[in-house]
Amino acid sequence: MAHRTRLWETPLQNSVLQCNLELFSSNLKKAFMALITSFVCLLGFSSPSYAQVEIDITEGNVQAIPIAISVFEGKTFEDQRFAQEVVQVIQADLAGSGLFEPLDPLSFIQKDASVLSVPKFSDWRVIKAQAVVVGKVERLPDRRIKAQYRLWDVFSGKQLSGEQFFIENENWRRVGHVIADTIYKRLTGETGYFDTRVAFIDETGGKKRRIKRLAVMDQDGHNLRYLTQGQHLVLTPRFGPRADELTFMSYESGVPRVYLLNLKTGLKRVVGDFPNMTFAPRFSPNGQKIIMSLQQGGNANIFTLDIGSKQTVRLTNSASIDTAPSYSPDGKKIVFESDRGGSKQLYVMNSDGSGAKRISFGDGRYSTPVWSPRGDLIAFTKQVPGRFLIGVMKPDGSGERILTEGYHNEGPTWAPNGRVLMFFRESPGAKGGARIYSVDLTGYNERRVRTPSWGSDPAWSPRVNK
Amino acid sequence: MKLGLIISMVFHSALLAFALFSLTTAKALKPNEVKSIPMEIVDISELTKLKAGLKKAPEKKETKKKDQKPIAKEIKEKKKKKKPAPKRAVQPTAEKQEPLPPKKPEAQKKKVKPVKKKVAKKPKPKPKKKTKPKPKPKAKIVKKKRKKKKFNEDKIAALLNKVPDSGPTASKLPDLPGAKKVKGNPRGKHLKMSINEIDAFRRRVSQCWNPPVGGLGAEELSVKLRIKLNKDGTLKGQPRVLNRGASSFHRAAADSAARAVWQCQPYNLPARKYDTWQDMILNFNPRDMLRG
To answer: Which string of DSSP letters, residue by residue, matches A103-121?
Structure first.
């Protein structure tokens, strides 16, 4: 995305600003006048002399926001068709979040909504829309797409956001994802997650002879790309903080090893030179280190490896299996699973390996902890007799909440906004297989993520263009 | 084997037959219908401080309408005219009864007579309270009583002193046209929205409020909104956010609060209390939703 400019933002008429401007007068006389002006301004803001009624509204009615995404304009007939596809991407993104209800375009009264004029809000109010999006897309001769859009609040008649940006032709779906991200952020306050990708293990063939390939796709299942061809077993892909690198475990050399793959160049290399099996890799928040487990006899311990200097640091040294390490977003803490206490439980330690403390105390076995990008929660897999659960808890172990459960759920991964999770669920039986699902933090809005075949081990990328 | 089967069948069929005929006759348990009693929770200050106004404030002109019914407050004015009216007080009943509607003259006479007796025996004007909500004839009776009272001026003065203490009379004043004779602001500065009215308003806004709870636990979701309303309950101008927040959560929350207020208008609020609700502050905070 070459340029992204904010357009048509209504200048904020703020009397406080005017007051402050006057206070910056140069000489004393002006300063005195400014003082009086500010006093007058203050009077203007002061509450009326009579007792004002104050009412607390502490409950609301949570429901999907009805939003109208009007038909985007296009210069040519081809552009109009293309614009229609962009609108469909936006609609699918917003509907998939569960927080929006894109209205049926057939119900729109105003058919000629333009990016250059103010919509007829009364027409949009009739169809119960709370916000309306108007836009225009144009394909430029230099193989770029120029996109413009405005988001309006139907009730107040205010423009909530307006932007113009350019994207390369081949990434045209990103036009829709970028607009959907902005709408999502403006109306919910959360950062959007639509302009992101998911790495996963694509599985084909029968259950006994399953071919597992490393693949990457957009979060909505489009633009699928295979990164390995299935000759070797691959597991646990994880994105780097810039979304341009992947680390994963592969049996390529016969022994399970951690690899690093550059998504732009396609270059792949083994991480470190360890004598035994390395597994469960993950990047540090700054992307300079990889943290992983190294098998030592019947035990496994956690190490970090500096990608630049190749220096390794041992963080745990116990006669147990310590694995699945995950950094906190500030890089100061690490959560991992260990069976040092007899059963698999979650532990949190400092990033230098000191002060390990158990945080999971519920019934069952806990595994695959992942620290939220927001830092407020840790997602995990919990195994109780007959079921696997996906849940979240606070970093101190309190506030455990189960979001979903099933025959075999595993491997949660966070959306970059820390409000949505993906995981895979395996169905039983000879014909069963793994599917990728997403669920939000409320535990509602569980949806299957589109994959070409069976899919497991999802890893959500950070935002592509922050 | 066969015998056991037969016995079993006989007993089972007997049991079924018993259940079929005896249990069906059992009376169905009908729960008593409990009708909800509509309640209005009113602030006591609405009754006691309603008339709080300035004594020196100019009297309103519209109070001098002819068709106004006599009320307790008039008694104060009549107090000054007591002395020139003793003779008129002798034949008040005859004069007053003449203009009465001819439909039920007897009934009214009947009502009047006991009053006379009562007044004669007991100068304490207990019937005064009864007269207040009743139509014209009763009001005239009150006048008669007053004239009767003039025979014992000391007691009347004592009674008049009690008038301001009579709660029910005072509470009814705002509903009567005569209520405007109170000096100062007839609404009184203590007139408040009742708990029920506030609750109804709160519920209405809550129904329209769709808070952005994606950010569970986010403190930035608290919004202080100032709204101004027209008399018809519609919004007057844009709602103003009083607490500024830098985060996108606060911005989204403020927009959702404003959207709720816009969406739910017009509001059905008591017109006589317009002064109290024309300018309100609403504190939006989804704390009760996030608690669970």
So the answer is: PPGGG-S-----TTS---H
